[in-house]
Amino acid sequence: MATAVMTRLDPQSRAAARGWSDLSIRNLFILPTIAFLIVFNIFPLIYSLGYSFTDYRASTNAPANFIGLANYRDLLNDDFIWNNFIVTAKYVLVSVSGQVIVGFGIALLLNRAIPFKGLITTLLLLPMMMSMAVVGLFWKLLYDPSWGIINYVFRLGDFAWLSNRDAALYAVAITDIWMWSPFVMLLSLAGLSAVPKHLYEAAAIDRAGTWYTFTRITLPLVAPILLIAIIFRTMEAFKTFDLAYIMSSQDTTELISIKLYKMAFQEWQTGKSSALAYIVLIMVLAITNIYVKYLNRVKER
Amino acid sequence: MAHVKLSRITKTFGAHTALRDLDLEIRDGEFFVLLGPTGAGKTTTLRLIAGLDKPTSGRVEIGGVDVGEWGAAERDVALVLQQYSLYPRYTVRQNLEFPLKSNVRRLPQSEINDRVARAAKTLRIEHLLDRKVDRLSGGEMQRVSIGRAIVRSPRIFLMDEPLSNLDAKLREALRSELKDLQMKLGATFLFVTHDQIEAMSMGDQVGVLNGGKLVQVGTPYEIYHHPRDIFVAGFVGSPAMNLVDAEIDDRRIRIPSARLDLPLDARGDGRLGHVRGPVTLGMRAEDIHVDPSGPIEARIYGVENHGVEKIVTLKTGELIFKATTSAATPTEIDAPLRLAWDQGRMHAFDRATGTSVSERAARLPELA
């Protein structure tokens, strides 16, 4: 196709005068990106798949021995790894559902004619634009038991959020909710404003109450876009590393990505950690797939 | 079923006045059509009655009760819109059940099933009941939307250009179906349209709205044959009434643009004998006919063949006008044709105010 277009290049056109067709210019722009992706993403991905079947340690000069599926077998039989997964699942559940409730709630409040709506929306979006590490450090200060503002405002005395084994994970999740609810809000707002006004009028004429209208009209129409927000947030939450790593070092906040980091760069078990990375990848893909299947069903309905 | 009365309604949107001092009365069981061009205030009137908007001033009464403070739900009206407003992702049945299932008026399931079945039968959509509304054609969607109105048996049916999005054939079919339905239910209908054919064919009463004012209310016959002003005369009827500048004096009628100057005959005298001075003269195309001894000598400018008859555009002097001829009349473009017109069916309008001077006050329908 590309050559066909080039051979038919109009001799009067600027492309001909230049000696370059538009298509070749397009390719010229795309190629560096593709090369970059192959060198820094695709190649390591495949290379690490090879490592995951070996006992390779990047810290020693010893050659990598092929050990088959031993890494995978060890990992899946390791109770500590399973505990990391449970912690991660808890974290994903709490933070994503929190974001949906808060984000969608704010979107509902904003979806009407109010003064300074644009300004309010922009201000609410700010947390999302900050760096994870900065947010983590900020909230560490906010949670501080002796002079943090949170304990001061809620009169919690010297409750140590981040060093409390039970509370730490929730403290991190709350930070994540604060940071990413605006994202859910933004998508929900787009979905809500796309619901035609005449449907609400028809419902009002049909004597539908507020709740009835919300569950029968608003929710079904916003569901697909809300689900997209949930997919994105689930994937991100599953991979969370920086926020939890910066804020707390409890074993109850050791998410799977933190475990992975420790295994790879503190214990230097390169082969085994590659295998763990692949297990995580497969899990994320599986979860996303379930969501996408469900999303397609919701859209078809 | 109910009587609707609007008194001295004014509605403004910012600086724009949509309705000015509107008085309107719709009798119980009447098919009332509100006719007017885009932006005349038809939809605004309907939304005020539905309770979706509140008038800036004036009184809305339904069944003799002032409903000014009532919301849309309490007024017990049904609304059918041009864009159908079906609830997406639900089946036809779920759409029809929707108004019956809200907690304001929870009905027992057997009653709901019964009503849905009856409505579906009336509108002949029984075979569609379990289909998703997204998979319906325009005509089917509009039927469902009407069905959703009738399951409730509301006091008034409000319809906002419900047929405008349909193709010509379907529009024609649904027009007579709607009229039948209204007679069968004996319900009060307020039907808003910009299509004068819909107004003429369906309405018991037609109200012509222009620029936020109700210009004339009457039966389709009255609106067509006795237009109260030049707007109604020009808006109602297809082809539109021929309107020309003329002068009437001394029992003679002069049309400068057609270089015509002839005496009023006995019928013309009966109609316009009392008029003097410059007027805008109105003649319907069907009142001008081919007559070898007629006073007008014109050339054929264009022909629209409508099967039963032809609508011929003619030119004489600088005047271009339309006449209806039988389908058998030969109509070559540019061929000369002699015509006459029925002077007893002329209309004349005051050039400054546009009000009819040919209609005697006694023959005009009273404004509600």
UniProtKB/TrEMBL annotation, chain A:
InterPro entries: MalF_N (IPR035277), MetI-like (IPR000515), MetI-like_sf (IPR035906), Sugar_ABC_transporter (IPR052730). Pfam families: BPD_transp_1. Coiled coil: none annotated. Signal peptide: none annotated. Residues 85-291 form the ABC transmembrane type-1 domain. Keywords: Membrane, Sugar transport, Transmembrane, Transmembrane helix, Transport. It is a multi-pass membrane protein. It is found in: Cell membrane. The chain crosses the membrane at residues 28-47, 91-110, 122-142, 167-190, 211-232, 275-292. Belongs to the binding-protein-dependent transport system permease family. PANTHER family: GLUCOSE IMPORT SYSTEM PERMEASE PROTEIN GLCT (PTHR43759:SF1), TREHALOSE TRANSPORT SYSTEM PERMEASE PROTEIN SUGA (PTHR43759). This is Multiple sugar transport system permease protein.
UniProtKB/TrEMBL annotation, chain B:
Keywords: ATP-binding, Nucleotide-binding, Sugar transport, Transport. The keyword Transport applies. InterPro entries: AAA+_ATPase (IPR003593), ABC_transporter-like_ATP-bd (IPR003439), ABC_transporter-like_CS (IPR017871), ABC_transpr_MalK-like (IPR015855), ABC_transpr_MalK/UgpC-like (IPR047641), Mo/tungstate-bd_C_term_dom (IPR008995), NA-bd_OB-fold (IPR012340), OB_MalK-like (IPR040582). Residues 4-236 form the ABC transporter domain. CDD domains: ABC_MalK_N. Belongs to the ABC transporter superfamily. This is Multiple sugar transport system ATP-binding protein. The lineage of its organism: Bacteria, Pseudomonadati, Pseudomonadota, Alphaproteobacteria, Hyphomicrobiales.
